[in-house]
Sequence to fold (114 residues):
Amino acid sequence: MATAYVSSIMVKYQDGFTEQITATADDVTTNNWLGVDGLAPIRMNGSHGNCAIVDIQIAPTPTDTRTSTIRVNGKSIPEVVLHGANLGTTIGRQFQQNPLKLTSGATITFAQLT
Fold:
């Protein structure tokens, strides 16, 4: 049975500004993570320059999906979010080790997969 979860996305901008973006997901294959406005894609702040996703924390553990694909400005990229590697209890989460760099004002869509 699908388990809805919340993702906390930590973003650091080139001017030093940081923000936490909250997204919700329903743990159903092909569905997108939704921002607090209930919409996907999620838009990065454009007034602080380029940015990087430096951490993602997922809770609770999704039961039906294991990864989420990432689209930046509508284009697929090779990186995926590994749900099990980004739980709040995991030490050394995926994007802490390898931040995902984005351009100013980029839109990002996360789509769940099994």
Remarks:
- The beta strands are 5-13, 18-25, 42-43, 51-59, 67-72, 75-82, 100-102, 107-113.
- Residues 5-113 form one domain.
- The first helix runs from residue 94 to 97.
- The mean pLDDT is 93.
